[in-house]
Design a protein that fits this description.
Blueprint (H helix, E strand, L loop, with lengths): L5 E6 L7 H15 L3 E6 L27 H10 L2 E9 L2 E2 L1 H18 L6 E8 L4 H14 L3 E2 L6 E4 L10 H28 L15
Length: 213
């Protein structure tokens, strides 16, 4: 099959080693058992600037000029076979760090050539008892905006947890994460086989909202 398939997970939690990280640790072990490496980007450990008041994003046709870790994160995503957006629920919505990432990465880099097209996409949401599905839907829309491939895996991968260490006790949530990992892995292996048999990747749409000059 060639190089080991890789999935990049964006951990949008502000807490190092929290429940979201624990769930991704479980996912990494599950991926590894099936020959896929999970590369976790912990946004809390990175240095990137939130979108500011420059006001250029709706008119500029080149990538963002901020000098920080964002270009490197985007390069890791582009090199991967799949992408997982993983975030806790904060204040009945997406954790602020993940929201900042979506804005900077999307408007500053991803919208020009849609380089995540045909990556296998997935979403994991962790929180107590509220707004999981709302946050899941927002991130799912972002996956579709970036033209990734979604694989149905049953119920959304939402995990109920409050205090640290509770995430893996949610058996139904962990089961949903397991099915997400397995379905993403199946699709990644299928795409590798398609490439091996045909010598081609899946078609990429030619039109886009922005043109990179």
């Amino acid at each position: 099959m060639g190089a080991e398939p890789t999935v990049v997970a964006i951990n949008g939690s502000e807490r190092i080693g929290g429940n979201t990280a624990e769930v991704l640790g479980y996912a990494a072990a599950r991926f590894a058992a099936r020959g896929v490496r999970l590369d976790v980007v912990e946004l809390a450990r990175t240095d990137f600037t939130a979108c500011g008041p420059c006001g250029e994003c709706n008119t500029r046709t080149e990538t963002c000029r901020q000098a920080d870790d964002m270009p490197g994160i985007v390069r890791r995503m582009i090199a991967a076979d799949g992408i997982i957006y993983a975030t806790p629920v904060h204040g009945f919505g997406t954790a602020s760090l993940m929201q900042q990432f979506i804005e900077r990465a999307g408007v500053g880099y991803l919208r020009f050539a849609r380089p995540l097209t045909n990556k296998v996409g997935g979403v994991v949401v962790v929180g107590r008892r509220y707004s999981h599905v709302d946050v899941h839907a927002q991130l799912l829309h972002n996956v579709m905006l970036n033209r990734m491939l979604l694989v149905g895996s049953g119920f959304p991968a939402v995990v109920h947890a409050g205090d640290r260490g509770e995430a893996l006790a949610d058996r139904e949530g962990v089961d949903a994460v397991t099915r997400l990992v397995d379905r993403m892995t199946d699709m990644i292996h299928l795409l590798h086989e398609h490439r091996r048999m045909t010598g081609h990747d899946l078609p990429v749409p030619g039109s886009n909202e922005r043109v990179l000059r």
